[in-house]
Amino acid sequence: MRSISIIAAAVAFWTIAAAPVAVVETAAAVAPADRMQETICRRDKETGSLVKSRKTCHTRAQWAYIDDTNQAFSRDLVDTTRTKPGGN
């Protein structure tokens, strides 16, 4: 009898836990016509914390601009701090 109540509780839990997933799937099914205007969310971990994170949402076009800018900054930083050969 006890195992039946545990199984019933587990089924009820998974039924409730699965309900928000169905809502997310239906929201994702209604995608914008232009893929560059689709909103993408990323989760970044806070420095010095194992659990704390920050969620940031932008469109695909904005993420492309942010990624390109960060990559250019990193490339410039490496190029300017590299030791130049042949110097006295």
TrEMBL record:
Keywords per UniProt: Signal
Signal sequence coordinates: 1-19
UniProt organism field: Sandarakinorhabdus glacialis
Name by which UniProt lists this protein: Secreted protein
